[in-house]
Known about the structure:
Keywords: Hydrolase. By secondary structure, this protein is of the alpha/beta class. It is built from nine helices and 15 strands. The longest helix is centred in the middle third of the chain and has 12 residues, at 120-131. It is globular, with a radius of gyration of 18 Å. It starts with a strand and ends with a helix.
Amino acid sequence: MRAVLIDIDGVLTVSWKPLPGAVEALRAVRDAGLGVVLVTNTTSRSRASVAATLAGAGFPVGAEDILTAPAATAAHLAGARVALLNSGDVGADLEGITLVGDDDDADVVLLGGAGPEFGYEALNRAFGRLQQGARLVAMHRNLYWRTDEGLQLDTGAFLAGLEAAADVEAEVTGKPSRAFFEAALGRLGVGAEQALMVGDDIEYDVLAAQQLGITGALVRTGKFLPQSLERASGRPDHVLDSFADLPALLGLAQ
């Protein structure tokens, strides 16, 4: 094993607060000389903001270590006119695309992370654009995520309705898309067989990575639910109580 791909929300942190032992475990991975890239569908913050928050909590990371769904989306939609529906400010990671206003023509309807902005008026406006021929692109299709207040609805719950109503299928640019994981491997300069993916979403983090030949480790923190493991479309290579158990799995000293 030469490199580790790590989800952030639910694995290293919950509501941006470090989970027990996560900081120390990531330091052990770094000290062992393994490559690290944090792969996240977070759409509420830019890479620079995510890095600053994590570094402030003690994690040994910088912006160059982070691959976000918005950054991958920008590369995918370079040159397009985009109507964005998102909760949070990720403009810094959307270079190369043109964000349009409510009354402007758009090539693409782009969904980021869900929040208060996902009301009837905004979703109906997106529906109208899709009827006019705009492509539907989603940074991810997660159904929910965990905060310190419990599980909260995410984009996938709304995306399914738009797809059904407009009779279209969304292109997904973040996890679990193959291109997203391949971009992470490319950044690390390793092959799939040399990498481990650690996540709290069995389908979109772990099994999606395993389909590419990446070893998968599911953690029982974050959005993990026992029934999700039981009903999953496959089995993870490893199941850990938390990210704090990763050094022991890899045989690293702490």
